[in-house]
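Researcher: Structure prediction, please.
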Amino acid sequence: MRILLLTAALIAAPALGQANPQIDYPAFQTLTASVAPQRASRLLAFDAFKAEAAKPDVLLLDARSADAFQRGHIKGAVNLPLTDFTADSLAAVIGANPDRPILIYCNNNFRNDAAPVRMKAAPLALNIQTFINLVGYGYPNVYELADVVDFNDPHVEWVRG
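Model: Predicted structure follows.
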């Protein structure tokens, strides 16, 4: 009887995974695969990242938690936590132009591994999800900090909370 119940549960599991029309994992997989080549061509060395951030109308977006952002962030960054991304919240922060250049960074761009930028597991680095989400919401002009820097380096212009 136990084996029969376990078998029934395993057979039902894939159907349950697709039961919610508001969650589309296969579409996420497709989006992730389609974004990969674009992301590979949009990685900027620190000096290029800083130069782009200084241009008018470029948005430096910090998608870490509001608490982490308050404890410290790159000067000029605007905070919208990834968990708060919706079409409306992104439009409010980014503005009306979906082609606006957006620069992103995350904890894993800093070698310090100290508060407020504790490193994440490399496959789960916030830049990955942020890039995918921004493109998925219709913002194709995303660039990512490629380098690992020290947030104590005066060239970083770190704002401490």
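Model: The chain has one domain: 42-160.
Researcher: Thanks, that helps.
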